[in-house]
Amino acid sequence: MGEVASLDPQDYVWGFSGTPAPMRQHYLPSGVETYPYAWVDASQARALSLLSPVLAQCEEAHVMVTVKRDLFGTGRLVQVEDLSLGPTGCQPTTYNTAENTVIFYAGLHECGSVLQMTPDFLVYSISLHYKPTPSSHSVIVRTSPVDVPIECHYPRRNNVSSNAIKPTWIPFASTISAEEKLRFSLHLMNEDWSTERASNGYQLGEVMYIQAQVIAENHTPLRLFVDSCVATLSPEADSNPRYPIIDYKGCLVDGRFDSNSTFSMPRFRDDVLQFTVDVFRFSKDPRDLIYITCHLKVAAATQGPDAENKACSFYPARNSWVPVEGTTDICSCCETKHCVRTTGQGSSHLDQWGRRLGRDVAAKLDKSKEANVDVMLGPILILDSYMTSRTPDNRNKLVLSAEHGFFQFPWMLLGIILIALTTSLALTTLGIFCTRKRPYNSS
């Protein structure tokens, strides 16, 4: 159970001091790296009672806040309904009439609390709010609103529960709980896989080198798999038209017909999976940007590959599917298109992620989503000079340029106008001269 924290009379000055007392951490145990502790700040409420009117106690999964109704030490009791906890306005759970105290008891993730992570601690922050309301027969109030920030600090690298299991290595599920989320990524790589590709543009006939990776520190070894990949013309993976690149839980189906797309073998690390895809475009759509969305997942590296956890490529020369690791029979479902784990195969360690002991750092998070995520790669520019020249927009631009190209040069247009004006002036002058000369000849 966590330590109790309160307002220290030496830290908070009664009255209207120009400078609030510095904030301090209260009742911090000597073994701070091992035990959770609470911290309360009333520096914004300098008129609060010096008799510790707010106490906070941090437990494994809850925080208990005890508030004295004589909040300001004046003998005037605040109304219970004027007190609330957190931005969602949680109401008190119990009221002790004998001691004139109000108690809030809430889960660490309740009442709008905020979770922050530091290198050593998980910090849950929430505030106690006092908002005085005038009585029904009055238009005045005699106290000021008060916000009292409260924090619960939990060490990230130790168990909070008093009866927690103490393994000799950091277990898979608990490490996910402590470190919050795995980090999945997709990258376009250069041909030798050494660095990320600088450009996202490709010509038809080229090859895309795609690398999937998961980053997870302090875990038991993990193996990454790509369940599926689909190419679309918009960022929405379920939009149409769509083209499957990888399907059926790890079958690189793009390599099944007129393509050399394959997984790279062997892996150089279990947490990385690389594969190549021959560049393509959608035949009935002139758009040149595509998006590739892949469903990535991890399994314990000690778990053997099976029909649901595999990476299979098709080799036309052999007319067969070949796995990156494991026996060839796990790829047979790539032809039947029905890939499920057979009876008797062991369940993944991920199946047990939902079973948690004590306080869970991320109780609101669905652990299955941490092990299975969709990652989008794109936009990827596909350059096809033939299609580009034949798109309606480009044809219209070419025709417009041919018919009205001189309008692209304003000085040419101005010269034509000046020539026309000069010619018109010369003809006018000649006409006047001829008109005046005719009467003279007739006389």
TrEMBL record:
One of its GO terms (cellular component) is plasma membrane. It holds the Pfam family ZP-N. Proteolytically cleaved before the transmembrane segment to yield the secreted ectodomain incorporated in the zona pellucida. The chain crosses the membrane at residues 411-434. It is a single-pass type I membrane protein. InterPro entries: ZP-C (IPR055355), ZP-C_dom (IPR042235), ZP-N (IPR055356), ZP_chr (IPR048290), ZP_dom (IPR001507), ZP_dom_CS (IPR017977). Component of the zona pellucida, an extracellular matrix surrounding oocytes which mediates sperm binding, induction of the acrosome reaction and prevents post-fertilization polyspermy. The zona pellucida is composed of 3 to 4 glycoproteins, ZP1, ZP2, ZP3, and ZP4. ZP3 is essential for sperm binding and zona matrix formation. This is Zona pellucida sperm-binding protein 3. It comes from Notechis scutatus.
